[in-house]
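Lab notebook, design round three. We kept the backbone fixed and only want residue identities now. Task for the bench partner: fill in a sequence for the structure below.
Input structure tokens:
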């Protein structure tokens, strides 16, 4: 379905531009919507590592941690 195609697109994009934090943020939100909070958190943390100033990455990480029970 659409979700699988989105994951494939983000996977390909991350290979083409692995240092683009926006790709990791979008991937994280996609994973979060799919109920995969642990994978989402990893994506948001990668975005934060690449650019610590992006608020959306911090917001996504907070949301993923909340879903994971504050871990």
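Proposed sequence:
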């Amino acid at each position: 379905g659409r979700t699988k195609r989105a994951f494939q697109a983000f996977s390909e994009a991350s290979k083409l531009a692995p240092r683009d934090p926006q790709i990791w943020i979008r991937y994280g939100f996609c994973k979060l919507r799919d109920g995969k909070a642990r994978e989402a958190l990893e994506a948001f943390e990668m975005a934060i590592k690449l650019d610590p100033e992006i608020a959306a990455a911090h917001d996504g990480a907070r949301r993923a941690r909340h879903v994971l029970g504050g871990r």
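Keep this in mind before ordering anything: DSSP finds four helices and no strands in the chain.
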